[in-house]
Amino acid sequence: MEEGDEEYEYDTPTIPARVAFRRFWPLTRGLRKWLLVVWVCTILAALAETEAILLFGDLTDNALREGSLAAFWAPAVKWLGVAVVGAIVAYAGNSLAAWATERFVMRLRERVFDHVQQLPPHFFQRHRQGDLLSRLTSDVEAIETMVVSGLVGAASAAFSAIFYAAAAFWLRWDLAAATFVLAPLFWLAARRFSGSIKDVSREGRVADGAITSVVEESLGNIVLTQAYDRRDAERRRLGEEANAWFRASVRSTRLNEAYEQLVTVIETVCVLAVIGIGAWEISTGRMTLGQLLAFAAFLGYLYPPVRGLAQLGLTITAATAGAERLIEILDVRPSVTDPRRVADPPGRPDGTVEVRDVSFRYPGADRQALEGLSFSVHPGELVIITGPSGAGKSTVSKLLLRFYDPDAGEVLLDGVPVRDFPLARLREYLTLLPQETLVLHDTVRANIACGRPGASDQAIEEAARAADAHDFVVRLPEGYDTKIDPGSARLSGGQLQRLAIARAILRDAPVLVLDEPTTGLDAMAARRIVKPLRRLMAGRTTIMITHDLNLAPDADRILVVDQGRIVETGRHEELLAWGGAYARLHRSQNNALMDTGELRLPLFVEQPVPVSVPVSVPMPAAEYGGDGNGYGHDPYAAPAAAQDPWTRPVPDPYDPYAPYDPYGPRHWPGI
Ligand SMILES: Nc1ncnc2c1ncn2[C@@H]1O[C@H](COP(=O)(O)OP(=O)(O)OP(=O)(O)O)[C@@H](O)[C@H]1O
C-alpha cells in the first residue's frame, strides 16, 4: 500500500445474500409482470423439451427397433412441431429476460449515480474515484446477476428440474428414485464451496477497484509522473494491486473448477447407477431399450438445471460481495437534503447574505473549521474574505452554497435560512466560481450554456463578449462549436477562467461566490480577468475568497479570517493604516512571499480572542507600545511587558535572518 492510502476509508459491511436481495428487489417494480412472462416462457420451453424426449423414446421403440418407416412420420411431425414451438417460446423468453435485466441494470446504475452525486465533498476525498467507478460498473452488474438473472435462472432451472424429474418418475419411478437418492450430493458440494467463493470474489472486486483507481490517478497525474520520472513507482503501485487481483482471480478459477469437476464425478456416479439398474431391468424383460435411452436422455436434461441451481447459489453468493460494496455507498447519507417545509420567497431574492454566528467542523475532523463567524453582505456590495492558507475561507463558500449545514448558527439569504430553500433553487440564486475551472467535455457553446440551459446563441455570445472570451473563441478551429475537455491543451488557464466567467454571467444569479478566481493564473492572465470579473460582479452581491489582494481596493469590506474566526474587518485603506494582520498579508503579497510557512508565523503572532476588530481610526503607536514598524499595532501581539522567558520577541517577517520556529512564537525551539 502506498503512503497515504490509509486516508481512504473502507468499511464494507458483510451481509447475507437474502438481505442484499431484499434491499434491491424493490427496483424490479414495473418489471415484475415481464419477469412472470419470462417464467411462463421458461415453463413452456421446458414442457416442449420434455415432450420431445418422450417422442424420442417412442421413435426408438416403434420406428427404429422395428425398422418401420410408417411408424416414423407421425411422431417425427409431432416432434418437429414441438421443437418449433419450443424454439419460438425460448426466443421470446430469452429476449424478454435480456430486456428486463438490462432495464434493471440501467435503473440501479442511475439510482446509485444519482445518490453519489448528492454526497458531500469529503466523501470524494475519502473514496478513490477508480474504486467508485468500479462500483458503478461491475458491482452494479453483479447485483443484476443476483436479483434478476438469478431469480429468472433459478425459476427456470427449478421448473425444468421438476418437469424432467416428473417425466423420469413417470417413465420408470424405481430408476428415478435410485438416481434421486444421489441428488443431495450436488447440494452438499455447492455448500462446501460457497463461503470460499464469496471471500475470493470480495477480494477480486476490491482489487479491481484498486487497479482502476491507480490507473485513473496515474493518468490524471501524468505530468508529475513524467516530470519526476515516477514510472517505476507507478508501475510498482499498479503491480501491487494487479498482484492482489491476480491471486484472487486464480483462486476463484481454481475453486470454480474444483466444484465443476466434483459435480462431473457425481453425475458420472448417477449415470453409471442408471445404466447398471437399466441393464438388469432389460435382462429381466421389465424394460425396453427405448425406455432406457429416453430415461438416460431425461437424466442428461435433468442434470444441467440441477447443476445450474447449485451453481446459481454460488454465483449469487459471489454477487453478494458486489452488493455489499454498493450498499456501503447507498448507506452514506447526503450531508444536506431538500427542506420539508419549502420557503417560497416572492420572486428573485435581492441577494442580502447574512452569516450569523456560524460554527462548523468537517465530519471526522478534530478541530473546528469555523467558529462563531458573523458577517453580512448587501446587494451590490463586494466583500473580500482573505487570510492564510487553511484559515477556513473556502469552508465559508461551502456553507453558503450549502454543501454542508453549519453545526451552529445560520446562513441566511434575504433573511430566509438557506436550509429552507430547495437546493436547486438556492444554487440558482447563488453562483459559485470555484478555485479549479470546471470544464464539461463538450463544445465551448455548451460549456457557457450550462450556466443557463436553453439560452439562445445570441445570449451565449453576449456573455462571452462580456467575459472577454468572444475573441479567442472565434479564433478556435470551430469557434463556439469547438470541443474542449478538462485536460484541453487548446485553452490556457486564463481563457478557461474567462469561459467560467461567461457561464456565470449567463446564469445571472443575484449572489456570486468567487473562490480564488485568480489562483493558478500568472500575473498577466490574472490582470486579464479583472475587467470581466468587474462586469460579472456589477450589481450583484459578491463574496470573493482570495489571497490575491489586487481587487482589495474595490471591496466594500475585507474580512481577514484566521483559524476559523474573523480577526479584522474594514476597508482596504483602513486595514492598511491599522497595520495589523491585513497589512502584513498585503506586504507579504507584494514581496511575493505569500503563503509560505515562514510567513505564516509572524502574520498571526498569537491566538486572537474570538472577536472581530472594527477598524476605524488606527491607534497611536504609543498606546500599543508601537515600535514604529507597524508590528506594535497588532492587538494580538503579546505586549512587551507580558513577555517572559518562555516567549520570544516577534520576529520581523522581512528579516531574512530571523529564526524560523515551526512550533510557533510561544515556544523556544528545542525546549
Ligand atoms: N473535507 C475536509 N475534511 C476535514 N477537514 C477539512 C476538509 N476540508 C478542509 N478542512 C480543514 O478545514 C480548515 C479550513 O479549510 P479551508 O479549505 O476552508 O481553508 P482555506 O482558508 O480556504 O485554505 P486555502 O487558502 O489553502 O484554500 C483547514 O484546517 C482544513 O484542513
From TrEMBL:
Q: Boundaries of each ABC transmembrane type-1 domain copy?
A: 40-318
- The domain of life for this entry's organism is Bacteria
**Could you confirm whether the keyword Membrane appears in this record?**
yes
Q: Which InterPro entries match?
A: AAA+_ATPase, ABC1_TM_dom, ABC1_TM_sf, ABC_transporter-like_ATP-bd, ABC_transporter-like_CS, P-loop_NTPase, Type_1_exporter
Annotated membrane topology:
Multi-pass membrane protein
Give a Gene Ontology cellular component term annotated to this protein: plasma membrane
Membrane spanning segments where?
Answer: 34-56, 76-101, 142-164, 170-190, 262-280
Residue numbers spanned by region Disordered: 626-653
What is an example of a Pfam family matching this protein? ABC_membrane
Q: Name one GO molecular function term.
A: ABC-type oligopeptide transporter activity
Assigned keywords, A-Z: ATP-binding, Cell inner membrane, Cell membrane, Membrane, Nucleotide-binding, Transmembrane, Transmembrane helix, Transport
Q: Its principal location? A: membrane
Q: Which family does it belong to?
A: Belongs to the ABC transporter superfamily. Siderophore-Fe(3+) uptake transporter (SIUT) (TC 3.A.1.21) family.
UniProt name for this protein: ABC transporter ATP-binding protein
